[in-house]
């Protein structure tokens, strides 16, 4: 048997208290409309001009201080507010960019795809605010683009068909197949047959295979 002595100042207890605090804070901020959309410009390094903006989620606390999203994303998820916050962010971004011609990026989570509301909701916002889908960039983390179990890829394809642009965030980190190959020090790589079929006529597959082979040679893998 094992006995653990409870300590009020233990790190685990502190984390639990912080989590409970942020869950309540996220609920309160959502209820009082303190979820804010801040726009960060994305510059073209060659021309120096602003090409588009990224809509960033921020919270104004009761004292009017701006809080970074990293503080409340996980607690908001535990509180069941992820997609509610996404809907608010999407609406505020569309509302702001209706008065100009800039393209803009909105961050979309796995939960947004799992609840399967994005296609209808985004199209409605385009129609309501008179914004063409081509101006909207949907930013997802790389792992989502390989998640076939929840039919995320099908939703992404349909959104792309409607004209929405897809941006992959954190490419080459964590979920990247290339990153995994380096960490695992793979000596042999078997290319999936879906890329080899019709290789003589499929330009996309040719580019993919060419890059895989080039990368394999650079890390010494067959």
Span from first to last CA? 51 Å
Strand content: 15-25%
Contiguous runs where pLDDT drops below 50 for at least 5 residues: none
Rounded average pLDDT: 84
| Class computed from helices, strands and strand pairing | alpha/beta
Helix content: 40-55%
Shape: globular
Task: Give Rg in angstroms.
Answer: 22 Å
- Overall number of strands: 6
Discrete helix count: 9
Give a quick account of the main beta sheet: strands, pairing sense, barrel closure: 6 strands, mixed
Order of helices and strands: HEEEHHEHHEHEHHH
Summarize the structure in words.
With 222 residues, the chain is an alpha/beta fold. The protein is built from nine helices and six strands, in the order H-E-E-E-H-H-E-H-H-E-H-E-H-H-H. Strands 1, 2, 3, 4, 5 and 6 form a six-stranded mixed β-sheet that branches. Strand 1 and strand 2 form a beta hairpin. Helix 3 packs parallel to helix 5. It is globular.
Task: Describe the protein's topology.
Elements: H1 11-31, E1 35-43, E2 50-60, E3 66-68, H2 73-78, H3 82-97, E4 103-107, H4 110-114, H5 118-129, E5 136-141, H6 152-161, E6 165-169, H7 177-184, H8 193-196, H9 203-218
Pick out its properties:
222 residues, six-stranded mixed beta sheet, alpha/beta, 44% helix, 9 helices
Concise synopsis of the structure shown:
About 45% of the residues lie in helices and about 20% in strands. The protein has about 220 residues and is of the alpha/beta class.
